Amino acid sequence: MTQNNNNPSQVAQCAVLQDMDESELEAFFGHVEFRCFDAGDSILKEGESSQYLWIIATGKCQIIKDCGEGIQNTLAVLEPGGVFGEMSFFEEAPHSATVHALTDVETMLLSRPGYDELIESHPSVAYKIASRIVGLVASRLRQMDEWTCRLVEQQGCEERHAEWQDFRNKLYSEWSF
Fold first, then answer.
1. Reduced to 3 states, what is the DSSP secondary structure of residue 47?
2. Residue 171, exposed/middle/buried by CB under 10 A (0-12, 13-18, 19+)?
3. d(CA 70, CA 85)
4. What Rg do the C-alpha atoms of the chain give, in angstroms?
5. Residue 62, CA distances (Å) to 41, 83, 137, 139 in order
6. CA 153/CA 162 separation, integer angstroms
């Protein structure tokens, strides 16, 4: 792994940073660090814990889920502007997937303590980041929901349909107020 301080303008197209003015971007970049990885490097590993929000500045990353019994599934390939690590960033829990650099990759990392500093010093920046991450997670959840529904329907099995409904009920009732 190499480290570099690159031009922040490379990631200005990132959805997390869109619509931030110059002073907000300056505040954000004052709380991040840049890290570079070589193609093939592991950036983070499923089951390990760290509280960083990662933004890809350059390169491509592969998100891999260990499904057990030696089976690994590619969840996504992310390109510049892509974000990962958001679940462990907001909820102190082990990473749910592994991230590998497919090419040489430059990332920006916002640590949880850095984010907490942003909350104190630049609350509008922290709010925009959180709001955009919530939108990202909601979009990913919506896509997963649609994919799972199609899969259950394709199987045409009433038992699978009932399992899916039970899972959804548990998932959504857990957050009922």
1. coil
2. exposed
3. 23
4. 18
5. 11, 12, 18, 19
6. 11
pLDDT above 50 for 90: yes
If one compares 67 and 148, the residue with the highest pLDDT of the two is: 67
Scan for tokens 């200005």, then name that residue: 12
Cα–Cα nearest to 133, from 83, 88, 92: 83
- 83-84 and 32-37 strand pairing: unpaired
Q: Note if the pTM is more than 0.85.
A: no
Token pair for 131: 């709001």
Which domains can be identified in the chain, with CATH numbers? 8-173 (2.60.120.10)
Three-point CA angle 67, 68, 74, nearest 5°: 30
User: Which DSSP helix (H) or strand (E) runs through 119?
Assistant: helix 112-121
What is the rounded distance in angstroms from the CA atom of residue 102 to the CA atom of residue 30? 28
- pLDDT reading at 51 higher than 50: yes
Q: How far apart are CA 44 and CA 100, in angstroms?
A: 7
Partners of 41 in the beta sheet?
Answer: none
As to burial, measured by CB atoms within 10 angstroms (0-12 exposed, 13-18 middle, 19+ buried), residue 159 is exposed
Amino acid at 121: S
